[in-house]
Every structure is written in structure tokens, then in C-alpha cells.
Amino acid sequence: MVHPRSSAWPHVARGAALALAALALPASAQQLVKLEAPDAQPYDQLGWSVDALGSTVAVGSHLADGLGLYNIGAVYVYERGATVQKLLPIEAAQNDRFGLAVALGDGVLAVSSRHANGQPESGVVDLFRRGDERWKPWQRILPPQPQLLGHFGDALALAGDLLVVGAPNADEPLFNQGAAYVYRHVPSHGYVFEAVLVPDDAHAEQYCGVSVDTDGQRVVVGAHWDSATVLLGGAAYVFEADAAGAWHQTGKLASPDPQYYDDFGRAVSISGGHIAVGVPADDDAGNGSGSVYLFTDADGLWVLEQKLQPLDPQTDHAFGRVLDLEDQTLIVGAVDPVGPMPYAGTIYVFGHETGVWTQRAKLVSPALPGTTDFGSSLALSGSTIVSGGYLDGALGIDAGAAWVLRDPSR
Prior knowledge:
The chain has no helices and 29 strands. With 410 residues, the chain is mostly beta strands.
């Protein structure tokens, strides 16, 4: 658990207290650490991606310049009591956008870039391994058949021995059908390709792999343009490996009240027998107000548990655009279009008690009145919440930042 008041975080700026919803919250909710790049430049967009595991936080800055090249990107790793470490692509090239997505595992960090081997928008994932208290380049991951415009690495997940990579624009084999690729850690061999996951009812322009997550055994894959029920309504798919190691689809999750272009599956997360699916274009509380669906595992069958909306739903809120689920806590990002500064960003915290998910807190941008897009990327680790704000302008236009804070409801 990260405790900002007692933890020595490197290269941080301490900001003002978070503004909270009208809920009974402890004073510790106001503790906050702001993470900034020690070499920040305008338009770097630090905070485009974030992840957290224990006392380690990784923050992507996908438009950072370096090595004399434009937009190669960078990832900054912050740890308590340690100097911030800046990571660059294993093989750097102009417009790599390294840091597009990040995922932390046990001693492993995965970072995606948009370009690879001279193929624009094909995608690649670089793995770093922690050794001697520093992160070192380890392995470069490519899909079995790299594809121009495949977007391999747009989504990443690490848990147990599994690395899952989303490629929503991959032609597998249909145009922009999308796919998720599973790699398994094998001692002395690194991460080895194991399977490509595609839906049983795959179709063109399904964009399967726009989001992915894994609990180390099961894999959840979002396909936000699935049109099996309603045009562009979206879906999410669950995959598991059998005793022989072959992967199979074991469930399809969809909205019970689908609508055109709901964006169901834009974000997914799995933990503790629950799956959360973000539906940011849901119109139940106004155009684009958004929602989140919770599914629970009932003896191997995934059943709808609850549909969530914030206590203050708004038009164009995009609630559910990003989310993270860990055990009995769920955090959800929204854009907050009509707050003190439109589109500054908001985070909602939900908890699961006595079989019901309820809103515990609302966190708004600590950089008001500026526009930060707070909550545009999220990570949850224990009672620690990490939020990106890639439009933060404290160190230059869109230089970006991230915030480490403690779950105010715990």
C-alpha cells in the first residue's frame, strides 16, 4: 500500500486536496502525491497510461522526445525511496509512441509501442525485468504475424505467468476483426507465444482486443463494435485454457438492454470472481452518460450481477471509459463535462458489500481550474489509486502528470 504522507516518492509535486462528493469520508482522503517527469516537456502527455503494483507505479509518456527523435515515448517508474527511472524502447524509432499502454507484473513491466520494424501502427511490446533494484530491457514481443495497422499492444494485461496483448485492428482473418494474443512465461525462455484468441462469432470491424484483462487463469477481451445483437453494441468474451493447454471461449458478456453504439467492452477488468465491463456510450441517463456492468461467476457461468451508474449521471459523461477492479473495489473514470472546468475528469469509487455494489466516493481533478483529463487512465493496487492526467499543464502545455492517492473509502 502506498501511503503518500509517510512515503518518500521521488520527483513529485505535492498538490492540493482532492474535492470529494458529499459522502462521509475520512480525513485521509485528502492525501495526494503528484508525479511529474523530471525532464518534462510540453506535449509529452505523461499519464496517457498508468499501472501500479504494490509500491511501484509505471506512467507512460507516449509523445516524449528522446535520443534526437520525435515522439519515441518514455515510461517513468516511481518507487518509494528510490530515484525515478526513465525507460526507453528497446529499439527506438521516430513516432514509436512507447508508453501507449503499460502493465506491471511480479518483477516484470510490459510497455507497448505503436510502430515496429518499420511497419506503421503494427505494434510491439517491450518487456523489462527488475534486477539490482533497477529495471532492465529483457525481451521484445511481436505477434506471430505482424500486420500493418494491426495496433498490437493497444491493450495489455499481466498476471501470474500470462501476458495478454490486445490488437483491435488485426485482421484475424477478417478486416479489423481484432484479436488478443496470449504469451506464457517459461523459465529460461521468457514469454512464449501460446494462443491467439478470437470470438466464436467473430466478424469484420468487431475490434476484439480493444481492452483485455486476466486474473492469471481466465482472459477477458473487449470487442466494443460487436454487432451480433445491435449494430456496434459491443460485447466482451471470456476465454480459459483446458487441461491440455488449449484455449477456448467459455462465455460471452453482453448488455441485457443493448443500444446502437453503446461501446460495451471499451474497458474490462476481472478479479475475485467478478468481471466489470465499461459502456461509456450508454444513453440511459442522457446521451453518452455511460454505465458499467458487473458480472459474477456462478459455477462457471457468468451472470449479470448489477448495472452501475454514478449518483450524479450526466450527458456526455462517458462513465466507464476506463476502470479497474480489484477484489471488492472498483474504480471508474468519467470525463465530468459540466464540472468547474469541463472535461477536467472524475473518478468514482465503488465497493461490494452484502452482495451489492455501491458508490463510496467521487474524486475530481486536483488541478482545477485547469483541464487535466484526470481519470483518463487508472490503476488500483490495494488501497492505492493511480490516475493519469495527460493534459496537465503545470510543466508546459499537455506535459501531463499522474496522481497517487489512497482510496478515501478505506
